[in-house]
């Protein structure tokens, strides 16, 4: 029986939806209010076996398409479809069903469709229309809840209610019920995770198994390996974006079809792109990047959240990182032109002033966070802008940012508003932004008192491995003391580590951090004294990037570029000097693709990378000229000969794929220092036991650096607990040794008296040190505590 005979289009219900949408638009207080109501009905949704579809289609009005040329396309795969196969050719049955339309909204209601679940692949769908030449054109669903083959392929109808009904963390949400909506507040600290590089498996399911294993070991009181300690001691886990990203510019596509009447044969490729997460196309933001799904099922994201919400001793909250401040240019292929407001340095601006676009973006966010996130981090909030034609200037859309914070979520019977964090460095990209940014624009604008921003030492351009960095940033540290309670703190995150690998190695490098560039970079972003400053002294919410604490590599990882891929690699080439030494390159599992292309040693690749960036610049990125000049080098360069444009693109792709493998945290497990990982875990537990350290410095708290400098920067911090206790920290951040002195006898007011005990020592201080004279070197620090009853009256 053909698929069309198994499906029934309920035109009465579809027409009722258009009548309802017309009423909403006619009676809503504003057009935006009306679009917000309609957005709830958009996308593919299933209830009681009936599938409902809604699309915003202004392009059909632009082209003057008649109702008789618009259909819902349904594609049903055979039961043998395996989402985990790398490649397969599958014949789908196809049916076209009528839709109802009112202005720019199309609706369809269908009985008999198969909805996807954890155990079943559902029917795929899209809206299609026929032009005057009889050519069929497809409109994809930007609000799809399952995209097994990415944002540029038909969506899968998915039973979200069934997915939510099986949650194993319902008790977590039930315990929070009370006055609605519940408002989540900040955690004590955060572990930032890039899913593809966090485990050897590189998927959400693999990360879930990692935390499940840790939960069982913690419950059983079993010993912890250094690799275990990396993931523990955190109140919250923040995932780098898990939305669908760009695809291969030059192909192959993950969905390539050959039509054949009522059926269509599709060449299916399992999505396998590598990406750091921020190259989004906006379409599909409500669901999960299929590259991260081991099973192809979005349930994997809920599985991870369940394990974190039910973690023994104390649940871990989950923060989603969402990117709505821009779209990659590929987004133009996935969405109609009304979504966009013109190009920018990342790709395309979004038209936030369009009421329908504004409503759909917010609805995407609502559906995504309904996977069960407790918090939301907004990437690049300074990029949410609109063009004020009257004033001929761009303005920040702070009202939209407030709307993002106001969204209410509904999970497991709990209505709540998540904790909100904004990365906002305005007036970036103004040239003096590092000086003029207050990092408080959103905090001061929004109505909630627990809105957070990334702080000044957390934003991108921080280089703690350059001499004088800490003293040059002292003015920012003073700001943290008085304003930091609502800032994310710490210097190790995905952005700062990436920027660090792009720094010119000829600058004034702090060679006291290590004997090699790799050691210097690793210690700079996993520095025991800096971590002590962050966790034991400064206010705010500390955040650590897993790749930094694991001393794994990191960089701009994206293998989809064709046109500019060689240029991107030329810009990243300097990271070879920072992150790869001869031994690392020689390991057989590392850089296998580049070795196959002829770069058998690191020296071979390094020599090629000395030429490539210079030629990219002098030729103004003319690939033909670059290839010609590379072929003329004497003695000849290693690599595929002769160099061609296609050959250069293969080299760029090999670099990105090899670096993606090289950056995996699991590669660092055998080289972890157990003293460092144990110290870092104890430091995190110290902060978790003293959540009051998040607060700004009070009138009795003190922070300074030891004077005279004498060629070193040593910070001191004295904090007073609400119960009268004290925490005193002293940290050597850079420079030569101090000479022997007693840290408790430096004349700092409030240190007088007795009763001090050593609470934390950086790893290079022996456990036998309990006080008295000591010489501090670069990256060494101590934390002392004193209970209230021992503080002099």
Automatic annotation (TrEMBL):
SUPFAM superfamilies assigned to the protein according to its UniProt record, in alphabetical order: (Trans)glycosidases
Pfam families per the UniProt record, alphabetical: GHL5
InterPro entries with a match to the protein in the record: GH, GHL5
Taxonomy, superkingdom: Bacteria
Protein known as: Uncharacterized protein
């Amino acid at each position: 029986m053909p698929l069309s005979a198994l499906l029934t289009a309920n035109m009465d219900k579809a027409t009722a939806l258009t009548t309802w949408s017309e009423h909403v638009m006619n009676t809503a207080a504003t057009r935006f209010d009306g679009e917000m109501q309609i957005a709830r009905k958009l996308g593919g949704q299933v209830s009681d076996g009936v599938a409902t579809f809604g699309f915003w289609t202004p392009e059909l009005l632009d082209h003057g398409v008649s109702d008789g040329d618009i259909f819902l396309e349904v594609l049903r795969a055979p039961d043998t479809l395996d989402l985990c196969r790398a490649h397969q050719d599958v014949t789908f049955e196809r049916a076209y069903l009528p839709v109802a339309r009112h202005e720019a909204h199309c609706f369809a209601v269908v009985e008999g469709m198969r909805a996807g679940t954890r155990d079943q692949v559902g029917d795929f769908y899209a809206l299609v229309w026929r032009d005057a030449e009889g050519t069929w054109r497809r409109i994809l669903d930007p609000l799809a809840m399952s995209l097994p083959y990415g944002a540029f392929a038909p969506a899968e109808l998915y039973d979200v209610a069934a997915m939510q009904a099986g949650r194993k963390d319902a008790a977590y949400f039930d315990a929070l019920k009370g006055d609605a909506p519940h408002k989540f507040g900040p955690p004590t600290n955060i572990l930032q995770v890039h899913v593809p590089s966090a485990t050897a498996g590189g998927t959400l399911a693999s990360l879930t198994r990692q935390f499940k294993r840790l939960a069982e070991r913690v419950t059983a009181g079993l010993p912890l390996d250094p690799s275990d300690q990396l993931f523990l001691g955190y109140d919250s886990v923040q995932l780098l974006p898990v939305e669908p990203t760009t695809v291969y510019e030059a192909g192959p596509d993950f969905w390539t079809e050959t039509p054949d009447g009522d059926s269509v044969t599709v060449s299916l490729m399992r999505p396998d792109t590598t990406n750091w997460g921020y190259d989004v196309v906006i379409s599909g933001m409500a669901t999960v990047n299929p590259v991260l799904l081991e099973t192809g099922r979005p349930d994997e994201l809920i599985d991870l959240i369940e394990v974190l919400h039910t973690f023994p001793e104390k649940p871990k909250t989950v923060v989603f990182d969402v990117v709505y401040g821009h779209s990659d240019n590929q987004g133009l292929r996935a969405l109609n032109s009304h979504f966009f407001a013109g190009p920018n340095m990342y790709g395309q601006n979004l038209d936030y002033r369009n009421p329908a676009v504004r409503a759909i973006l917010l609805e995407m966010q609502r559906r995504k966070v309904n996977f069960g996130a407790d918090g939301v981090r907004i990437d690049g909030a300074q990029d949410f802008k609109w063009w004020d034609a009257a004033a001929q200037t761009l303005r920040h859309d702070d009202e939209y940012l407030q709307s993002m914070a106001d969204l209410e979520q509904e999970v497991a019977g709990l209505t709540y508003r998540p904790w909100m964090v904004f990365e906002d460095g305005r007036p970036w990209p103004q040239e003096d932004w590092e000086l003029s940014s207050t990092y408080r624009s959103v905090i001061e604008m929004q109505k909630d008192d627990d809105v957070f921003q990334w702080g000044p030492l957390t934003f991108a351009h921080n280089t703690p491995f350059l001499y004088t960095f800490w003293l040059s940033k002292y003015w920012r540290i003073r700001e943290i003391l008085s304003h930091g309670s609502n800032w994310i703190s710490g210097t190790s995150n995905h952005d700062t580590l990436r920027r660090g690998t792009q720094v010119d190695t000829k600058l004034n490098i702090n060679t006291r951090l290590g004997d090699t560039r790799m050691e210097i970079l690793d210690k700079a972003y996993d520095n025991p004294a800096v971590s002590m400053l962050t966790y034991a002294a400064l206010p705010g919410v500390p955040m650590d990037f897993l790749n930094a604490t694991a001393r794994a590599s990191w960089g701009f990882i994206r293998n989809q570029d064709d046109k500019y891929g060689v240029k991107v690699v030329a810009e990243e080439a300097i990271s070879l000097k920072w992150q790869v030494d001869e031994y690392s390159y020689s390991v057989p599992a590392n850089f296998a693709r580049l070795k196959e292309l002829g770069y058998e040693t690191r020296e071979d690749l390094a020599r090629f990378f000395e030429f490539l960036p210079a030629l990219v610049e002098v030729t103004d990125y003319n690939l033909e000229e670059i290839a010609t000049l590379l072929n003329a080098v004497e003695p000849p360069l290693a690599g595929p000969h002769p160099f061609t444009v296609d050959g250069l693109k293969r080299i760029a792709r090999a670099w990105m794929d090899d670096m993606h493998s090289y950056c995996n945290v699991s590669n660092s497990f055998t080289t972890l220092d157990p003293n460092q990982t144990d110290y870092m875990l104890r430091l995190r537990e110290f902060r978790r036991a003293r959540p009051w350290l998040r607060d700004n410095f009070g009138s009795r708290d003190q922070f300074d650096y030891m004077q005279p400098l004498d060629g070193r920067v040593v910070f001191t911090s004295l904090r007073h607990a609400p119960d009268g206790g004290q925490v005193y920290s002293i940290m050597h951040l850079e420079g030569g040794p101090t000479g022997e002195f007693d840290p408790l006898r430096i004349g700092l007011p409030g240190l007088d008296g007795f009763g001090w005990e050593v609470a934390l020592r950086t790893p290079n201080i022996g456990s036998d040190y309990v006080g008295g004279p000591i010489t501090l070197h670069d990256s060494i620090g101590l934390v002392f505590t004193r209970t209230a009853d021992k503080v002099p009256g």
